[in-house]
Structure to design on (229 residues):
């Protein structure tokens, strides 16, 4: 359904690819790549952003409007349950992310991307952890706010996390207190995890702890507060 929806396709595939091309082929944004090539430095962050856009923004909005239109009310009459709904959403998100990773990685490889192949399994782990955390956040918002509110909040949060959440730019390069705050956000943890995996071959343990903590807290909140109607 996401891939058939033009607006969702724009958010999940087209915008990340355009962002990748813009950051790699232009110097409009000044980046300290730490000696890595620009494409090697940027690609992990763009992949992290793609995970966020699918697991969080797309899922929050789609679920909120399903709830408003009565689709979730019908689901609540089945044995699915809240845990089953969350698990189904995570699996659906992972299916879309496979497409995203293939497309973005293909473009990045054409631009000269050379990831550390030994870090690919660690990157897959980071994607799974990020997907769980952001899908839990999406379900928490979609199950507690009105659809119009979710539409506004989800897009605003995505923009704020993209700009100051440590996704595209490492937390240490952000100004002032943001350098410390971003490390504790799921966006910053996911960005650090992807860069660590694909640039250095391993995921920073602190990022794993942060993502697991957010997943546990948000998943618990979604399970307790989610409303089907």
């Amino acid at each position: 359904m996401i891939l058939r929806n033009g607006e969702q396709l724009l958010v999940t595939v087209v915008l990340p690819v355009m962002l990748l091309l813009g950051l790699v082929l232009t110097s409009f944004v000044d980046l300290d790549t730490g000696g890595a090539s620009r494409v090697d430095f940027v690609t992990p962050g763009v992949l992290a952003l793609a995970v966020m856009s699918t697991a969080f923004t797309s899922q929050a909005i789609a679920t909120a409007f399903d709830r408003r239109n009565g689709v979730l009310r019908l689901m609540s009459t089945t044995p699915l349950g809240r845990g089953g709904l969350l698990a189904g959403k995570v699996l659906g998100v992972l299916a879309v992310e496979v497409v995203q990773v293939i497309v973005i990685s293909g473009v990045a490889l054409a631009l000269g991307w050379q990831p550390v192949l030994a870090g690919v399994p660690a990157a897959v782990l980071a994607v799974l952890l990020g997907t769980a955390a952001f899908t839990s956040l999406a379900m928490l918002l979609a199950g507690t706010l009105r659809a119009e509110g979710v539409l506004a909040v989800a897009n605003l949060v995505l923009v704020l996390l993209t700009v100051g959440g440590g996704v595209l730019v490492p937390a240490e390069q952000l100004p002032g207190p943001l350098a410390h705050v971003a490390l504790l956000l799921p966006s910053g943890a996911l960005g650090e995890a992807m860069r660590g995996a694909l640039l250095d071959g391993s995921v920073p343990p602190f990022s794993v702890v942060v993502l697991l903590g957010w997943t546990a807290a948000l998943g618990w909140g979604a399970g307790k507060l989610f409303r089907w109607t």
